[in-house]
Prior knowledge:
Helices cover 17% and strands 41% of the residues. It has helices spanning 7-15, 71-80, 130-140, 191-194, 233-238, 249-261, 311-319; strands spanning 2-6, 32-37, 41-47, 51-58, 65-70, 84-89, 93-98, 101-106, 124-129, 154-158, 163-168, 172-178, 185-189, 202-207, 211-216, 219-224, 245-248, 270-276, 279-286, 289-294, 297-299, 304-310, 327-331, 339-342, 348-352.
Amino acid sequence: MKLCIDSKLLLNGLKQLSGAVNPNPIIPVLSNVKVEVERDRVVLTGSSSSLTIVHVLENDNLEAFSFLAPYNDLVNVCAALPGNIDIDVSSTSIQITSGDDKLTLGVSDEVKFFPTIPDRGNGFSVKVDGTFFNAINQAATSTSTTPGDQFNNIYIDFTENDAIVFASNRIHIFTQTFGIKGKTRQISVLPELVRPCRSFQESEMFIDEKNVWFSYMNTTVIAKTSEAASVPIRQLLSRRTEPNYSISRWGLSNSIAKALSCSSDERYPFITMTVKGSDVKIDYNCEYVGKRASVMTTGNGDIDQHIVLNAKNLKDVLNKFTSETDTVDLSITAHDANMYITSKAESIISFISPIN
Length: 356
């Protein structure tokens, strides 16, 4: 059984599978790539227990067959041998030849032991574009890193009218709404399962009870959906009040920096945000001496509150915004309620809980 193919073409195809192939998997067969040779194409498949990537290469072949090859070894061989290569597959070895160069790979497990591509179940499909994948990428940076936390996942909440991409690390919320008309269903996936899609510009997205499919050009990514408990995203977002203050992001950051630089408690440095009418002032302790900083604000709030906040957490919230954001909007209702922080220029919603 022989496959003749350009090594650069094969190498580029193998690179598309990198997100699904673990060099040291628990199941040894998953360190391989499945190569299916058909008359006019070569189908490459990499798989883990939760992610499958399929990439199709156009290539004219004289015969049809399939085999498994060690992924890393095949990548290294393709990188080392330029131009056209001949891959001869026998029951005992895989020989790869380019001109006078010849390399031999050991035969891997039989193809029948490699996971099959999941069949599509009862589900629905929608069309998504590059904006959707940009949102997925941003959501991936907003998930929790605490082991076992349900907010480790990216959530996509579908209705018949729209779809919301949602992620949170319990301090920051990322959310973006798309006019995608699907069926009422919420899915969640781990960020690493959708990273292979980060460069997709468009896709048919198919969702069933167990998996989500993304297809773009010659690549299909099949990610297993999480069994994490659903999150009442729409109810959570509806509880957020409209912003009633706009505040200088840099003025607030400078006040926090001053508070952190001379905090008497390194573990729980705090500041007190004094809100009275449209005026906001920051109080903090410096070597047990009270200090006050004024921050440029505008607002329409009719509030007289003292809100105690963890300065480190507030700094993390502000750092989530890009450097182009000079002003952030605050939603303040009471001294013991979550304070939401947003920006008109970005799709980030952050919140910080007061210290009671």
